[in-house]
Each structure stands twice: as C-alpha cells, then as structure tokens.
Amino acid sequence: MTTTVVLVHGAWHGAWCFDRVLPLLEKAGVPAVAVDLPGHGRDPGPLTDLHGDADRVREVLDGIDGDVVLLGHSYGGAVITEAGVHPSVRHLVYLCAMVPDADESAGSAAMDSSAGLSQEGRPTFTGVTTDNPDGTVNLTADGAARFLYNDCDPDTVTWAVSELTRQPMGNLFQSPAGVAWRERSSTYVVCTDDMIVHPGLQELLARRCTETVVWPTSHSPFLSHPELVGDLLVGLAAQPAG
Q1: Which domains can be identified in the chain, with CATH numbers?
Q2: Interhelix angle for 199-206 vs 106-114, to 10°?
Q3: pTM over 0.85
Q4: CB under 8 Å to 132, separation ≥6 — which residues?
Q5: 223 φ, ψ to 5°?
C-alpha cells in the first residue's frame, strides 16, 4: 500500500515553505501533500483556532487512500498532535516542533520545559513582532531573518519573508483535543542552530517521541537543507506499516 507524506507548516507560514521538499519526494516516487492551514499561504481564510487548523488537516487525510506519514513544523506540531489520531496516520514527524500533552498547549509546553535552560549566546525575542487589533501578530522582516532563517541565503530570506502571514496567537495556548504521539510512532527532529525554539527544549520534547534525529540547522531546514527533510521522509515512507 502506498504511503503519502502530509506536511503541515508552523505559525506565520503556509504550504509554500515546503516548495523545495516536494520535488525531492516526487523524484523518489513518494506522494506528498503540503497543507495550507486556514487563512495561511494561498488559503483565503478566515483564520481559525488550533481545532480549526486540525480540522483542515483531517479533511486532507480523509481524501487520501493508504497510510500517512504526517509532519508538523513548530506550531504545526500541536496541529498534528490533534489531527494525527486519524486512522490513516501511521507515523508522526515533529520538526523542531511543539509536542503538547492533553493538559498542555504549545505555549505552556514550551514555557514549562524551557525553565532553567541557558539563554547564553541566544538573541532576545523582543521587538520582532507587531500586534494587530484582531489579536494576531506579524513577524518583522528582521525578526524572521534572525530567528527563523539564520542559515538561509539572502534571496531565500527575502522570498520567505514576503510570504509570511499574520498568526492568531491564541492558537498557541489551546490544548489539543487528541494526543496522537501517545498512540502513534514518531520521530523528533532537533535543529541545533534554531534561534526561536531552544535546542534544549527540543531535546526535552523529543523524549515524548519514539526516536530522535539531530540536524545542525536553523528553524527552517526545509529551506536551507531540504535534502535532509526529503531523505528523512523518503526513508519513513518506505518503512513497512506496523
């Protein structure tokens, strides 16, 4: 039976962020779908909460024959935690992502687990967002370059920043209605040059997953090192079910 890879982006992003990964999967003969969460990327909106985002992923999963390797990046980890209890999902991939439990949100999991981690040598996450009247926030161009794309070339940074959208911050403080990592096998990818999600936090969250891999990349390896993402997913898709 064919395994399909489904890719779920994080906050501020859209399906476009996987544009360099999808051709690698296609070349390897692995069917793949990159999802635009409501109001992101090419989706006209409106924006939704965590549960609405998970509903969008479930809609995509409903249309797939065969089993699925489901990847979530950053905030997308909370989305796949809820959506990944879908019966088609056989493996989860958390890409420098949040891995909340039933009584946690992405935000609380991050804050609670980050207590005591050294911040030496890391930039301060201040002055890099702008607040909107509707409760959403935007990343500044400089903030995105420093925190998301610090190992990307200038042309890539310019393109990626131009595609970013506003993000409802309330989503980061909702708990998932299901906890797929308690029911499915999973891989956590720790990105050691990540400037927004502390690598030490990633290592702690990775303990909730079945296996861990470590890459020397920023928060956005799908842009700076898409071959790493592609190779991992091709390998997981090739594994036998069960």
Answers
A1: 3-119+169-238 (3.40.50.1820)
A2: 110
A3: yes
A4: 138, 166
A5: -100, -45
Mean pLDDT within 171-179:
96
Q: What is the mean pLDDT of residues 155-181?
A: 96
Q: Which residues contact 9 (CB under 8 A, 6 or more apart)?
A: 15, 17, 18, 34, 35, 36, 37, 40, 41, 73, 76
Strand partners, 138: 130
Among left, alpha and beta (phi > 0; psi -120 to 50; other), residue 121 is left
CA distance 50 to 75: 9
Residue 206 CA to residue 196 CA, distance in Å, equals 16
Structure tokens at 211: 């296996």
Question: Which tens digits make up the pLDDT trace of 181-212?
Answer: 999 999 999 999 999 999 999 999 999 999 99
DSSP β-ladder status, 185-191 and 211-215: parallel
